[in-house]
Amino acid sequence: MSRLENHLLNIANPTYRELIAAGRRLEAYWIGPPPEDSPTLVFLHEGLGSARAWLSFAESVAQVTGWGALVYSRAGYGASGPADLPFSVRFMHDEALVVLPEVLDAMRIDDAILVAHSDGASIALIHAAGPGAARIRALALESPHSFVEPITLSSIAILQDRFENGDLRQKLERLHGTNTDRIFHAWTDVWLRPEFAAWSIEDLLPAVTCPVLVIQGKQDEYGTLRQVEAVTSRVQGPVKTVLLPDCGHFPHRDRRAETLAAIARFVSSG
């Protein structure tokens, strides 16, 4: 049995890894072959997500592609160490240009496909437009943000009431434990800060030259199809889009089978 075949047999058993990046301890999991044996799928979670929120889907993508996968929680999220708070308006730039390069270095990943959702997708675009782009093979993006829309801010404001008076805090505690209150308030506060309304990465998109897949739900409550148009009209690499009916902000949850198939086709075509 080859080394790769042996890893594929164990692909359903993520291995816990602890990373240090930008001086922070990060919760991480490795699935499947090591980076020297295959390209690596690197999963970047949304604004209130974590590694554990991605794990099941990441296992499925690794299984259908046969590639390795790294899933990690950013500082302040999941079981990672604390983040520097409050978040800067440029927090996604910092993650993309400072933290992510150190994560890839620590795991010796030189051939990566960034599979990213929401804030994570924005981080992926910023990174692919920057000096570390040479080791990025492609981007598979769900619900990316390139600029701030009123619908996004309205939906985040609704989350605050759900957190204080509904079941959202309990749901997030399953992902973040003792980090829950701090990370919820840090993330909602930065997005709803008046100066954040001018945040945009549209000027960076022409520097993205790798292939890009954009998956968006037609009923996304955090962004309109203008977000898809921003990517397709500005990115210089080839772009494929998948617009899913009866789907909100979480395609890998709302339309899991279609999202998995779309990513598998995209990855195999490259």
Structural overview:
The chain starts with a helix and ends with a helix. The chain has an eight-stranded mixed β-sheet, with helices on both faces. With 270 residues, the protein is of the alpha/beta class. It has a single domain (3-269), classed as Alpha/Beta hydrolase fold, catalytic domain (Rossmann fold). Residues 1-11 have low confidence and may be disordered. The chain has helices spanning 3-9, 51-65, 91-106, 119-128, 150-165, 168-176, 180-192, 226-234, 251-254, 256-269, and strands at 15-21, 24-31, 40-44, 68-72, 112-117, 136-142, 212-217, 239-244.
Give a brief rundown of this model.
With 270 residues, this protein is an alpha/beta fold. The chain contains ten helices and eight strands.
What keyword list fits this structure?
single chain, 270 residues, alpha/beta, Rossmann fold, eight-stranded mixed β-sheet, 10 helices, 42% helix, 19% strand, globular, disordered N terminus
Rg value? 17 Å
Strand count? 8
Largest beta-sheet characterization = 8 strands, mixed
Number of domains: 1
- What spatial form do the alpha-carbon principal axes imply? globular
Distance between the termini: 27 Å
Read across the widest sheet, the strand sequence of neighbours is: 1-2-4-3-5-6-7-8
User: Quick check: average pLDDT?
Assistant: 93
Q: Do you know the CATH topology?
A: Rossmann fold
Proportion of residues in extended strands = 15-25%
**CATH architectural type:** 3-Layer(aba) Sandwich
Please trace the helix and strand order, writing H or E for each element: HEEEHEHEHEHHHEHEHH
Helical content (DSSP H or I, runs of 4+): 40-55%
Number of helices, counting only DSSP H or I runs of 4 residues or more = 10
- State the low-pLDDT regions, or none: 1-11
Classified by CATH, the class is Alpha Beta
What is the assigned CATH homologous superfamily? Answer: Alpha/Beta hydrolase fold, catalytic domain
Summing up helix and strand content along with how strands pair, one would put the structural category as alpha/beta
